[in-house]
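Extended Data, panel c. Modelled sequence:
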Amino acid sequence: MHSVVDIIISRFSSDDIAEFIGKDVVKYIEMIKGIKPKPRDLIDILFKNITPIELFRKNTEFKNKFFRKLRTEQAKNICISLGYQKDNYFEFLSSYDLSNKKNLKNITNFLNFDYELSTQIESDESSNEIKFNTAISSQYSLFEHQSEIYIKVRDSLRVAPHRVLMHMPTGSGKTRTAMNILADFLRNNEFKDKSILWIADRNHLCEQAALEFEQAWSYLGNNSANVIRLYSEKSKNLDINQFNNGSSFIVSTIQFLLSLRNNQNDFFINFIKKIGMIVFDETHLIIADQYKEIIEAMTPSLSTYLLGLTATPGRSYINMNEDRKLSDFFNNTKYTLKVKGYENPIEYLIDEGYLSKVDTETIDYESKNLIFSDYEKQIILEGKNELSDDRIQQICEEEGRRALIFKKIIECSQENKGNKILVFASSVKEANLFADVLKNFNIKIFAITDKTNSQNRNYLINEFKKPNSDVQILTNYGVLSTGFDAPKTNIAIITRPISSVILYNQIVGRVARGPKAGGNEKCKIIQVVDKGYGFRDLSESFLFWEDIW
């Protein structure tokens, strides 16, 4: 109970409360439980999904409606407590600025509920500051299946034109293998005091690479090395002299490099002279025009090495010319993880416990309202392309389809309380809807999306990943298909129609880490299948583009 707040809200109509909760949330709770929530139930649902403080801060309509429901004497007492002595109490309260934290605290004190901002964090940026430059002083051994490809890639990089793509499945240790290769070059000073630049397309992937190098070099290094992060706030004001301290491991987003070239071109030209090798993570992105342009600008001569890392060495599903561009960019030089006695390394990795045994399950659904065009039917039949975003949303927003997903998530959460579940939603709205509904079924669940600020996102992810955390489900959109490492996660539920080989591979990789990689012996991939639309085979996805190379 929230004392005065509860009493005032009880004066709202059921429709009003449902509006503040979200009518879709109420609708699906009713569908799942089979009963219409009572007004008291609605208040409970409201405060499971949002704290009173958040309602006052973020919802002006709620604030105004709340104050209008006060008795005159209550409004007068609040105004007096705020130092306001005139008679137009309701007008004053309507205009009272609750975005001001001091004002908000005054209100919360009077209404007798805790001044708690939310279950998410709003901390000072400085307390979670990413370091710009970390000095590392000088174990990190390779598994058997990594050693052969490590030697081949390393030796091939030493031969002009020094461009190699390393193709390894998600969860097989691409990053670990790459770090061993980089350590070889740095130990031998093969770039004559030039640095290695690691490029990724998101800040959190850059940070993962920086931390991984720090660990790797602490075991493999033979001298000190600098780790320089070009994606933090401190990287805005750069001095070229910062890169004159010998070999460094520099990590940057592609977006930062594009900005650097566009806004500080003289610095950019001097900067690239300091780079001996570029490593591009998730290399299938490199053929995008802006990415290709920046890489070409940074490799003006054959002396700059280029190492690409990917589990999916292709970009398109129906345009072979696009895939050929990637192959040509690396001079048709690709080394794929191979294991003697196995046609496909996925089978070996599962047998040896590096990857989980993947159990696939489908939720079959046939739309009652959608009629596919001939073109769309061909797409679905061939599994070569994705439907448009608008079309995907039209499919995913069908009530019957979504109700099946809710029931499956609840079932998975109840079957084994030790399950850690990732839900890959079809939109920001759906990711939040899943969390808002399922909170009402005794499930500890968080939602994160590409709209969640980075501090809150990191906090929620870390809470989910903690070994003893009671957070069972993380529902997400647009943020966890790459670079997310939570080995104990053993169920992935894919709610959107998907035929993309790349996306499917990346999603499965989030839950398919085996016991030797700190994960699970078995994992489950649950996918909603709409009229057979979907790509559901990890082994096939790994070899999908072999004929291009």
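The CA atoms of residues 158 and 340 lie 26 Å apart. This feature is highlighted in the accompanying rendering.
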